[in-house]
Amino acid sequence: MIGPTFALFIRSLREDTRAKFTPIGRASLVLVVLFFIAIQQRSFARQPAPGLQVFFTVMMVNLFGLVLGGITAFCSAITEEKEDDTLGLLRMTNLSPLAILFGKGISRLVSGVLLIVSQLPFTMLCVTLGGVSAATIWKGYEVLLCTLFFLCCLGLLTSVIAKRTGVAVAITVFVGAVLYVGVPIIYMTNFARNPWSGAPTQSPVQEALGWVMANNPLYQLTMLTQGGGRGFLPTAGSPWLFHGVAGVVCFLLAWALFGRFCSGTAETAPKKKSAKPGSKSLRIPRPGSRPLVWKDFWFLIGGRRGLISRFIGYGVLTFGIIAWAIAENSYMESKVVGEMMVVFAGFGLGVELVIGSASIFGLERKGLTLSSLLTLPVPLGRIVRHKILGVLGSFIPGLCFVGLGMAMTPESVVSFFDDVTRRDADTAVFIYMLLHLIAVPLLTCWLSLKMRRGAVAAAIAIGVIWNVLLGVMADIAERDAFVGLIIFASVALVAISIIFFAAIARGIPRAGAVE
Amino acid sequence: MSDSPAIEITGLRHAYKTHVAVSEVTFTVAQKSIHGFVGPNGAGKTTTLKVLATLLAPQTGSVHVFGSDIVKDRNSVRRRIGYMPDHFSMYRQMTVFEYLDFFGAAYGLSQKQRDQTIGDVLALTDMAGRKNDYIQGLSRGMQQRVSLARVLVHDPDLLLLDEPASGLDPRARIELMEILQELRSLGKTIFISSHILSELATLCDSVTILDRGHVKYTGAMRGLITATEGDITGYILTLAAEHAALLAALTALPGVTSVRQVEAGQPRYAVQFDKTKLAPNALLHAALACEAPIVAFQEDVKHLNDAFMDLTDPGVRT
Lengths: 515, 318
Prior knowledge:
The complex is a heterodimer of chains A (515) and B (318).
Chain A: H1 2-18, H2 21-42, H3 50-75, H4 79-83, H5 87-92, H6 97-117, H7 120-123, H8 126-129, H9 134-161, H10 165-193, H11 204-214, H12 217-226, H13 239-261, H14 265-268, H15 280-283, H16 291-300, H17 303-329, H18 334-366, H19 370-374, H20 380-392, H21 396-408, H22 410-422, H23 424-450, H24 455-476, H25 479-513
Helix pairs in contact in A: 1-6, 2-3, 2-6, 2-24, 3-6, 3-9, 3-12, 3-24, 6-9, 9-10, 9-12, 9-13, 10-11, 16-20, 17-18, 17-21, 18-21, 18-23, 22-23, 23-24, 23-25
Chain B: E1 7-16, E2 19-29, E3 34-38, H1 45-52, E4 60-65, E5 68-69, H2 74-80, E6 81-84, H3 96-106, H4 111-124, H5 140-152, E7 158-162, H6 170-185, E8 189-193, H7 197-203, E9 206-211, E10 214-220, H8 221-225, E11 232-239, H9 246-251, E12 256-261, E13 268-274, H10 280-289, E14 294-299, H11 304-311
Parallel strand pairs in B: 3-8, 3-9, 6-7, 7-8
Antiparallel strand pairs in B: 1-2, 1-4, 4-5, 9-10, 11-13, 11-14, 12-13
Helix pairs in contact in B: 3-4, 4-5
């Protein structure tokens, strides 16, 4: 029983140990921690409780990376086998569903745990900077580990249920958003209206909401570094109770449902049936003079159907914002709604930009179709240009809603550009942020040529760590040095973009040749 | 079309970091022929095919396709070749027609040309009835046919096929070989890498055997499988029963270098002779004159498997 159950688990651990990324990832995180400590140590005299600040920043970076990496790694645990049609082969061996879950899920959990724990000795150095105790640091890591365990089990459950990784990620993100974002918003909105409604008068629903919020890792880490619950805010709960129990429930459910959703390759492989003549196939026009644009528009971003879905998505978002504005103020204020639309649609556009950059060559590489494209009698530059043109359509809905939002609040747009152009520092920051629109897609595209999965998560994580490091440096920089720092960072982004552009130009033929 | 060979490789070498995949590879492939490319796993076949398909640039040596250098005239070479890799390289969410239509358009064919060509290649590959099916719903054999159809859609002169029959059932393999023979009759040059030697032996005009990155044999298939060395050739004489006088009679003939019994107890004799001094008919005539009960008289042909085993080294490449 023990042998087969842990066979896959041990194999995964062995592969993890041999993987190049393992030591690089751990070393990078440790370096980030040491960098934070070194920066804070330089400004020791000017900052209150520098150790606490470093600890809080490290926790936030970890939490962000954990959520991002966790979702990517755990949600693909079983679906990757379904997508590759190899789950049936696994089931034909002596491996039980429990062994597969252990092997595919728990090994990734162990890798995550090691990634987090490897920083612990270095984070302990924060104690020497002052403002934080060793016990607080232990508790912080406790929260991270419990959250990781819950994410692992939730990801495994959705991976068992879903046929594709994308669906598993979507379900996990939805559950996570409800628990970690939805509940706090409802709770805070409810109590902000009547902050004096003390705990004794709370209804069971309010109590449940408060309990879920008390177990929110972001809330727990904030309370840990800023003190216990005050006023209507609940006291942070034990991380083991909520995440531990929820995690175990998810794992048991995944085990119980494994047979139902992963019964065989034929049932689980994501296969479409034959096309009905006269349905979808006839609605797609024939390719014209730009077949690559045609292919990516219709088959990568979903064509007309994809555009309509996006319009509906952004429309629902707008409707939600309007509903929220009316509920809050009893009337709709176009300025507030417009600003929120710009922010949310802009965020959506950013997400689409990153996903599009990962898909443009990543999906060709995954589908082993890059070699066919590269043997076309077309220069590589034109292939790249046409593929970019093909996915540009996916941004139309987002851009429309950003434009609509801006049209609803023209005075805010004018005021924003006034602010941006008034001071050198703001102009520099604005240009720096705009450069991300080039650097991040290039980074994502390059990563998608190197990694089979997780390019989006890796690109976002790298971007966030880069900006957190810059933020820490900007925080301690002299006022005069701030603009110089941002200009330096902008030049660095341009240089990085050029490097990635060259790496992509070399990487595409290489990826095609190794298929 | 010029008289240049379809493929002319001279001194090709390609290494992946420290691992030399192919070295000093030199061979030519005549136009309108089927050329087999054979070798054990890791011999460097796929690397050579990728170089020919312009996916890899030769590190040293030169590679010409119909006289055009594959590095300098890359796009013109790409127009004349159709490369089918050893894996399914398909957009599975497309229908068969959409897939072929896309590649036809990507090769610059007009809609009218595409309609004509797609109809032809679907008929040739017997997939006309499945043109509205999604590719991912097709069986492996059918996907292989669609792959072949895709390779043919721009009417290339040279087909580069990497293990086209792998994973196919016997029927599908035979049908694929029939399609290839039909394509040769249409004037295509076919360069085919395969492990199924028995089928290559009957299909190919010429063959190159590659082992551990080096060419072990290149030339006519007949030259590989017949027991001919210079002017010495071999024939097998099969009798209904042993005949005592035959051996002496045959040995006495001018030009005969050896006569031996193929297997003890079996009335089969391998005769080797100098074909400039003795004609096979004269040999047969001498055997008939001895009143030997002849059942068969045929050229001594080796099985391609035997030739392959003789030429390649045992074990796995390290």
